[in-house]
Amino acid sequence: MEQNTTKSTPGTKRSWDGVPIHSESSKLHPPTSTMAEASESSPNILSMFGTFRDELDQHHDRRERLIKTSRDITALSKKIIFSLQRVRTANTPLPVSIQKETQSRFSQINELFRSTIPDITGLNSRRYLRQLSGGIQEFIEALSFHHYLTHQTLITRDEVAAHLPVEIIVTEEDYAMGLFDLTGELMRFAVTSLSAGAADTQAHEKGSDGGDTEERLNLPRLPPAQAGVVRDLREIRAEFESITVPRRHNNNMFRDYGKKSEVMQNSVEKVERAAYGILVRGSERPAGWKPDLSAGVEMDVY
Amino acid sequence: MIDRAIFESLQAKIDEEAAVRDELHEIVQTLGRKGRSTQATLSRAHSTPAEHLKSVLEDATKEILAQKEEVSRLKSVADKHPFYKYNGLWSRELQNLVSSIELCAWLGGLQEYKSSSSASFLTMEEVGKFLDIPVNLKEEDAFHLTLEEYLLALISMVEELARLAVNSVTLGDFERPTQISNFIKELFSGFQLLNLKNDILRKRSDGIKYSVKKVEDVVYDLSLRNLIPKGKSA
């Protein structure tokens, strides 16, 4: 490049494009003229982005409102679960105090779900599923636990949906994840009720199966109520294990399936070991003794 | 008592959804393959002087039109399902396509779809009209180009233009960096109007300032040595 015009006297002020600047007015001119030229030639960028901003703001507001509601629903659901863990037997009506407490929390949750409806109508019904699904899953956990304690069956997805406003979508994924979490609660419930119920074991043994031989009568057996929970957990585990999520879609659907599945298997195994421990050594343990739930399966829980 | 039907219907739903995903995935893959060849064509612009650009733009337009067909195919399948359920499957490839369209338009292609012949880029509405898809829907649950996708596409275009500013100089074009600089600074000021939260849009738009700086450095280097042609830009 043979351009040597730059070599002028030092100290000459120049604008960005190399034009020497002489006075205040000319200093201001070049940039303003190019800006005007640019905005003439293209759609008005600033006004375009102005509307974009309003739309994005609305989106973020909706999103944040839903995240907050989801957290509130999660907190209430956890409280319901805590109260329900004070119950000792399944398939019986709940104690009145617990029933009252959970009922009022369930209606508060319903209120919260209702409040989200304006934000999740039409196109947005699935847009914010991810924000809301934490709350929905926790709610399903609480509801299915409640359902199990009162009916000793698994709640179906349709039954869950019936407890919610129609606008709330209960996806299969949230339902499945809620059931996985339910197995954790059933584990706690089974282990505590096993240790509480084992006191009746001896009484039960004596009265049952009159026609059996002398020897079998003396063998300890789990009381049917507790045995039912253990059996149900085992069945849930078997059913969950039979489900296939195509590996190529692992990242997009049922994302936590593998992880939750592992936790579930662990819970079931804990209960199986606890049942074994109570059965074999039940009569040896001191009154009021509770198995340790904090430890992993590998540790002896009896 | 555990009702087996619960798990059977769960499995049925999983299979159903997997089949939909497979169908969409196949289309998106084709769209992506064609998209990469569009991008390869457009990247010839980095080594082609402006006066010979015409053939590059013609080739790119042809490939963009081929992609447009995939988009129509995608639309016809996606419209059968809730938009936001599967949107994540194609969002990326659609962004890449829009970014190719914008780059092609900025370089002077796709003239007939611009609001005026001097416009440097296509608005969201113009992109929608070109691709024959709705944009930025608010109520109706149907296939469309979302605002976020459009904005992300503009950001990719800015990054590509920053690279082009450098390569233009190598090709002996000292005028283009100034044009690029003006344009992306304008877009940058637009992006600065947005209140961004911690999401992908925030992360990507944070990168614009580096693109702006890259181009400004080129313009600075050129102006320092008085290499910028006077006529137009002064």
TrEMBL record, chain A:
Residues 1-12, 31-41 have a biased composition (Polar residues). Coiled coil: none annotated. Keywords: Cytoplasm, Nucleus. It is found in: Cytoplasm; Nucleus. Residues 1-41 are annotated as: Disordered. It holds the Pfam family Translin. The keyword Transcription does not apply. Gene3D superfamilies: Translin, domain 1 (1.20.58.190), Translin, domain 2 (1.20.58.200). The keyword Transferase does not apply. Belongs to the translin family. This is Translin family-domain-containing protein. It comes from Aspergillus pseudoustus.
From TrEMBL, chain B:
Keywords: Coiled coil, Cytoplasm, DNA-binding, Nucleus, RNA-binding. It comes from the Eukaryota. It is found in: Cytoplasm; Nucleus. Residues 50-77 form a coiled coil. InterPro entries: Translin, Translin_C, Translin_fam, Translin_N, Translin_sf. It holds the Pfam family Translin. The keyword Transcription does not apply. The keyword Ubl conjugation does not apply. Belongs to the translin family. PANTHER family: TRANSLIN AND TRANSLIN ASSOCIATED PROTEIN X. This is Translin. It comes from Aspergillus pseudoustus.
